[in-house]
Amino acid sequence: MRVYATDIVKKEGEEIELIGWVHARRDHGKLVFIDLRDRSGIAQVVFPARGGSLPDGGRGAPGENASTDNAGDLRLEYLVKVGGEVKKRPAKMVNDKIPTGAYEVSAASLEILSKSEALPISVDGDGYDIDEEVRLKYRYLDLRRERLRRNLIVRGKVVKFIRDYLSQRGFIEVETPLLTKSTPEGARDFLVPSRTQKGKFYALPQSPQQYKQLLMVAGIEKYFQIARAIRDEDTRGDRQPEHTQLDLEMSFTTPEEVMSLVESLFTEMMETFFPEKKMKTPWPRVPYSEAMKKYGTDKPDLRKDKNDRDEIAFAWIVDFPNFELDKQTKEIQPVHHMFVQPKEGSVELIDKDPLKMTSTQYDWVCNGCELASGSMRITDPELQMKVFKLLRMSEEKAKKDFGHLLEAFTYGVPPHGGIAPGIDRLLMILLGEPNIREVVAFPKTGDFRDPMMGTPSDVDEKQLDELGIKIVKD
RNA sequence: GCGGGCGUAGCGUAGCCUGGUUUUAUCGCGCCUCCUUGUCAAGGAGGAGAUCGCCGGUUCAAAUCCGGUCGCCCGCGCCA
């Protein structure tokens, strides 16, 4: 019966089978030890003397161990299947440094399932000191290391927790398209050329924003999606060309309800998976103006001790202005996006003094990092059109780009709002990682490449012809 | 686009400031051969592996100094 390495502590005296990689080998000639690693962790396997038995009496008479005679051929990262008995180690041979250190598997059989060349990178250790280009080229090896395996496992658990939590509360998970429409506002789009409509393009979604609002018009009422948001803007340590958000939207809701939902969801998540973190509850609320005045930023770091790895300072920033002036162009632009509902009493200001308007926006921040922006949305087509115009969009352009939304709002639109917390950034902070790439299975480099896949790549002339595309080299 | 840091075997590094006991470029891990019955950073003996990112210059002599160039990382701009 196959057992995971870390489960041997529960199997003393039993005949078991381990399958995993040779993480380390210590060959004493007639006696060979390996650390066998599988997805659970590490267990020591001891191979008996070749042609003999173990000093402690071992397994059976000489000759019975013939099936482990190839133990001396083992090399790092060979994939092996080992059969044997789980034994408690004598007291002075216990290794306190590993969780399975009080036990070991006394091997009776060994099968080499797959050999390995010497690895280009070590998968032992945390890997931080290895050139990242090489780590990414051999990501499938890099992911073998304990730290990254743990990151993927925790990520999977957190996402499942979110899904369960929201599903239990009546939310419906809906997938929205990846092939969508380019709108020149906001971030730069990744474009996908259309073959069937030569000369036209799809855009990959910067966020499912419009779709989720249309789902509210459809009457879904409570929507969420673990959604990819894709933006063609330069990267940072906490920014990738594509990242994952918990996108959610509710009808007949209030900022209070959204904030309280997110707060209880993630508080419970923290208690479940990160009980060691010190977190203030309820999360403080800081008005935008106060944050700017006191901290000079709308994503203040509210930790008391910034060197404390376990301190997590979640907070809400509220009472954002609707609009601000671009620092360079001095043109008016939305603080969040152009679908944000102004606060009650602020709406009338749009004709007189739009910069004085306060919005329903609320941001979730953590340790000086923005984790999410959310708001109530505009549902009045007239007000929405006013916003478009305020942002110097012609009525024709607005109807061309957003006519579907404006029209949808004429068919019985529920008031709605939502939020979209960034999963990668949250995990980066909680796992104490210095970079978002450490919590993403297959991330891209700072200049958008994947050294493993060789992305982006040239394409065949034929593919370009079908799309009606000619490459202009400068 | 701008600013900063880095580039020496498969990986991590020393040497660079102050050019020459480096004519044969340091050390650790990994790799290969042999020895080794209790290791867990196993140990012992031996060995292979580097056009010092690339191009050019200065010099009797360049990993080292100078110029250019390429690549990566971090930050700014940008990211509704």
In short:
The protein is 24% helix and 23% strand. It is an alpha+beta fold and 474 residues long.
Largest beta-sheet characterization: 8 strands, mixed
- Give the C-alpha Rg: 28 Å
Question: Poorly predicted ranges (pLDDT <50, ≥5 residues)?
Answer: 51-65
Number of discrete domains: 2
Strands, count? 19
By secondary-structure content and strand pairing, the structural class works out as alpha+beta
What is the overall shape? Answer: elongated
Q: What order do the strands of the largest sheet run in, or round the barrel if closed?
A: 6-9-10-19-18-17-14-12
Give the helix level as a range of percent: 10-25%
CATH-assigned homologous superfamily of the largest domain: Bira Bifunctional Protein, Domain 2
The CATH architecture of the largest domain can be given as 2-Layer Sandwich
N- and C-termini, Cα separation: 62 Å
β-strand amount = 15-25%
Q: Helix segment count?
A: 11
What number is the mean pLDDT? Answer: 93
Order of helices and strands: EEEEEHHHEEEHEEHEEHEEEEHEEHHEHH
Under CATH at level 1, the class of the largest domain stands as: Alpha Beta
- Per the CATH scheme, the topology name of the largest domain is BirA Bifunctional Protein, domain 2
